[in-house]
Write a structure and sequence with these properties.
Mean pLDDT: 82
Order of helices and strands: EEHEHHEH
Structural class: mainly alpha
Distance between the termini: 44 Å
Shape: globular
Strand content: 5-15%
Strand order of the largest sheet: 1-2
Number of helices: 4
Radius of gyration: 16 Å
Length: 111
């Protein structure tokens, strides 16, 4: 597993990967329901991005795409969906940064 966040890249062997993901899931599954509901997922994603606010549209995107990928349209994140949710979040944040950079570069060249 390679878990990516803005500040670091954490590589874990499979056994430690499961322990890490289990710990993260337990931390954010505050009601011990066995899945992360919308606001619990928001907190998890904020944790991955060091407190950066998670916009509603971004949260909807992650929930919808993970459901689409796994084929279980339930609007929550199960334990086995935690890693795909984190990967989608990172990809979304990276694409936003790229778009912002391109916009700023274009704007600067037009000045």
């Amino acid at each position: 597993l390679v878990l990516l966040s803005r500040s670091h890249c954490l590589t874990l062997p499979p056994r430690r990967q499961n322990k890490y993901l289990d710990a993260q899931f337990a931390k954010y599954d505050t009601d011990q329901s066995g899945h992360l509901e919308r606001e619990q997922l928001r907190a998890f994603l904020q944790g991955l991005s060091k407190g950066k606010e998670v916009e509603d549209g971004d949260l909807d995107f992650v929930l919808e795409k993970v459901d689409e990928i796994n084929g279980d349209i339930n609007g929550v994140i199960d334990r086995d969906e935690l890693l795909p949710a984190a990967a989608l979040w990172k990809e979304l944040q990276d694409s936003k940064k790229t778009m912002q950079y391109k916009f700023e570069s274009t704007f600067c060249t037009l000045s």
